[in-house]
Amino acid sequence: MYRTVNLTTIDHYFSGENYIPLTFALWFDGILDAGKLQASLDENLKHYFPLHSELLERDSSRLCFREIENSIKIKVQTIDDPEIDSSLGFKLLNYCAEATNNLAEKRLATFNIIHHGAISILVISISHAVSDAVGLFKFVADWVALYAGLTPEPPSHERDLVQAILSDLPMNPRELETKRASFQEKKVVSTSKILGIHEIRFTKEEIDKDRPEDINALSVIAARLLKFRFADKKTETPIKLVIPVDLRRLLKDFPKNYFGNAIIPNHIEFETSVVLNSDVLHLARIIQTKGLSMNLAEFGQKYHSGDFLRKIKGYKALQNITVSSEDTLLLTDLRSAPYQKFNFDKINCTRMTILSRYRNTTRLFMEGNQYIIQQIDRNKDANEI
């Protein structure tokens, strides 16, 4: 069966010739049975046709799929290397990263299980052209439900409705042309090695201490990280903070359980002196005002700008974010990620890692009473955004 899906303005940030796949590694405390997982995966893929397809055509306005007749088999690998310590993580993650290299150009999803000792890592890699991380969470949650014999709510694939909602956002057309200059070229490299994982932990009490009620915790964490990351910065080039924003939560009438791309990176730029000389709470207030309190007009400006670039076939421009790894902190808030609710046969998921191919990505998780900030270090050949 052939299907055609129209691309939304947001999709253009994540598709094109050099798109980067979205890859999750979910860590389970126990041995997952791939044979038992396969049946529920097959059932789940019936509701997620883009993942059970190969890509036939991609142009400036649509994706054309052909559904795969056979199952997408879960590939299993056992790692017996005694020098790998599961608690260290990063050496094992390189096996996970290598397992995703079989996401061929036309294949839109792969599923791998890596066994090491008494743990299993479920590695899922999908084309970012078909969904973002929130959509992938929904996919895995449905997989878990089907495995347990439950019937999950079906996903929505209503991209035309999403585009209509975006098109109705207010905008200032006089500013549209100037937005073209804000997109820059992106370096794309096929592979890179994971060199290590760094984690910074804050207790909830540390973040909430002296925090006024009108400043949220995310702004305080971002301010702390900016001051930590750029404490020794010598140049006066601007510092950029990028915080992805999920429109599912912010725009009413968005389709429920939408499987697609609904996240846009929101950029905040600072003079170096502001970051270095401001105290944490002052910097947090700036972040919240400029980055976490965007109104619909500002959202509308971003999306209409993207649509303008699409119409002039500015594919590469749409894929590039106005940052470089040297002066940028990209902070993804995953505190609400439901991975700790994932379990198969009472084998629980205890950890999640996003195997980003970018060097400057930082993830925020919540574990009990602690905020966990995770940075994966890659070698110099990793992509820059």
Q: What would you say this structure looks like, in words?
A:
The protein has 385 residues and is of the alpha+beta class. It has eleven helices and 15 strands. The strands form three sheets. A six-stranded mixed sheet has the order 5-6-7-2-13-12, sandwiched between helices. The longest helix is centred in the last third of the chain and has 16 residues. It starts with a strand and ends in a 7-residue tail after the last strand.
Approximately what portion of the residues adopt beta-strand conformation? 25-35%
> What does the overall shape look like?
globular
Give me the side-by-side strand order of the main sheet: 5-6-7-2-13-12
Give the helix/strand class. alpha+beta
List the helices and strands in order. Answer: EEHEEEHEEHHEHHEHEHHHHEEEEE
Largest sheet, strands/sense/barrel: 6 strands, mixed
Instruction: Compute the separation of the termini in Å.
Output: 36 Å
How many H/I helical runs?
A: 11
Poorly predicted residue ranges = 176-191, 380-385
What average pLDDT do the residues reach? 81
Helix share, percent: 25-40%
Overall number of strands: 15
Radius of gyration over alpha carbons?
21 Å
